[in-house]
Design goal:
With 67 residues, the chain is an all-alpha fold. It is built from 2 helices and no strands. It is elongated, with a radius of gyration of 16 Å.
Length: 67
């Protein structure tokens, strides 16, 4: 059952990362002159969301090793 929870955590975090990138692309389409700033913010936002995925992966490995 732990693996289901960890998988859901990774899936939800991946969906969040996709939303960050989607919003950045839409913002660049609306205001192309802000592309440099938006790219930096998108990379920062994606990195912050990615930490949740990495933590879930490490937790999954630890649970798997325990079993």
């Amino acid at each position: 059952m732990e693996f289901v929870g960890i998988g859901l955590g990774m899936g939800i975090a991946s969906f969040g990362e996709a939303l960050v990138i989607k919003q950045a692309i839409e913002s660049v389409a609306r205001q192309p002159e802000m592309s440099g700033t938006l790219r930096t913010l998108m990379i920062l936002g994606a990195a912050l969301v990615e930490t949740g995925i990495i933590f879930s992966f490490i937790l999954g490995l630890l649970v798997w090793i325990k079993l």
